[in-house]
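Hello,

Following up on my earlier ticket. Below are the two sequence lines again, exactly as submitted.
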Amino acid sequence: DAGITQSPRYKITETGRQVTLMCHQTWSHSYMFWYRQDLGHGLRLIYYSAAADITDKGEVPDGYVVSRSKTENFPLTLESATRSQTSVYFCASLGGAGQPQHFGDGTRLSIL
Amino acid sequence: GNSVTQMEGPVTLSEEAFLTINCTYTATGYPSLFWYVQYPGEGLQLLLKATKADDKGSNKGFEATYRKETTSFHLEKGSVQVSDSAVYFCALSVTGTASKLTFGTGTRLQVTL
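Thanks for your patience. The regenerated structure is below:
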């Protein structure tokens, strides 16, 4: 089915470890986004991408790395996880200006 | 910069009650305004949107009017149902910013029988 999928849905890891969250969309949307959701903050933009090989920082990029070698995939990597990165992470995609963003179901990440 | 302010939750209502969730914004440029809804364990879904002043977005009985003079986009529904229980997010995007969304903190709605 067409859509946007995130994996894993749940992840527990330890501080200092590297972890990668995956995001895949089947619409060939140009834009993709990573957000984190924390109580009292709503959703905050981490990184976004306007096309393959084009990425840019959002509001809270520190500690995260992204890549986009293919249009359909936009992985988010925490190179050395910290407890403050415990959160729910959402990926979204967008077909073009004026269109709504479509969100995945999220990845709940706990860092012990 | 851009920001969105929503009323604090949770909001608890009885079924068939009238709902208002307040949302105000500040933006550089001319924003489009959105309401997203998040049901438990799910991602966000677009509920409605408005792209210019005085536009009214509507969907599933929910409405919101883009008020430029008061920089507001309040969400209303005349008669809520238990199935409307969710978290509601007001958001904006400004033309020329790669359609990046700026979200409010969200308002949890709990509807009881």
